[in-house]
Design a protein that fits this description.
Length: 71
């Protein structure tokens, strides 16, 4: 997934009791199913694989330049 400037985007998933977010390239996301009631985010990738996150506090899509890889 890219914006009008062709800059890459990433999904940051923040889970309870984990100071570091999980980072997923938006390019690999085919479908995403957030469920606030169960605090889950389920992702199907473009390759047909499945990723599941539990105890999710929040998530957000950000451009690459906003990620500090020195976290």
């Amino acid at each position: 997934m890219a914006n009008e400037n062709n800059k890459p985007y990433f999904l940051l998933v923040f889970q309870e009791n984990d100071p570091m977010p999980s980072i997923v390239s938006a390019d690999v996301i085919a479908e995403m199913y957030p469920c606030a009631d169960k605090k889950k985010v389920d992702i199907t990738t473009t390759e047909g694989d499945y990723m599941g996150f539990e105890n999710v506090e929040s998530f957000k899509m950000v451009p690459a330049e906003e990620i500090d890889f020195k976290m």
